[in-house]
Design a protein that fits this description.
Elements: H1 3-11, E1 18-21, E2 25-28, E3 31-32, H2 42-51, H3 57-68, H4 78-88, H5 93-102, H6 111-129, H7 134-143, H8 161-171, H9 178-194, H10 200-210, H11 215-222, H12 230-238
Antiparallel strand pairs: 1-2, 2-3
Length: 263
Amino acid sequence: MTPSELEQLRRCYPTRAGFAELSERSVFGEHDLHHTLKDLSWFELNLYGITGRRFSPVQVRVLNYVWLQTSYADVRIWPNRIVALAGSARTTPLLALVGGLASCDAELFVATPLVRCLATLRRLREKVRAGDSLETLLQAELDQGRTVYGFGRPIASVDERVPHLVMFLRDLDADRGECFRLAFRIEAFLLEAKQIRMNIAALLAAVCADLGFDEVQMHLFSSLLVFAGMPPCYLDAKRVPPGGVLPLRCDDVRYTGVSPRKW
């Protein structure tokens, strides 16, 4: 950025986010927060802030269920464990929750895989639209050793959330999206080729792709995807004595690395 460009931004910062005129009004995006947007739920306001769009009641129900069905309140799950350990150390709720949320930006958990899955689905969709064979495209991915994001699960081969989301969408007649159908075509190929099933990321990304999300919007939307499971784990940790969450002795850890050596 040139000095003149910096000077221009110093004089006037262009924003589409909104502005607050204290004692008068607050504008969110292009609308008055306390008048035009006052009947939105917080969830709908968050969606509007991310996408700049208003969604239909059915679409809001679908996106709300995307968040709801991934809200596991199990202290063993990575971000929940961080929150519980922070609660066990008696830190504040906000610090504990921020620590758990930060872990959701990991390479293999929540936001990043979902973004990559959405990008893959959109890329394959465009190539299939252009006349390419999906099977040929997928075989090329496998031949090059690439990961087909949204397919396979490290702990269990079947993702229990998939049929629940499918049934939810079917009940709302919201299961006809192009990327939604594409995800099942990919699964059919991978099942035959490598016995790999889809995980929930494929369907969540497909739903968002069919609703027009881009990669940045997907990242922002998924940032709170598992948040609702965290506060119960924090409260659980506060009910036991400090240090009582997942206490381990040194000999509880089974070491399988290099044997002891003399130096």
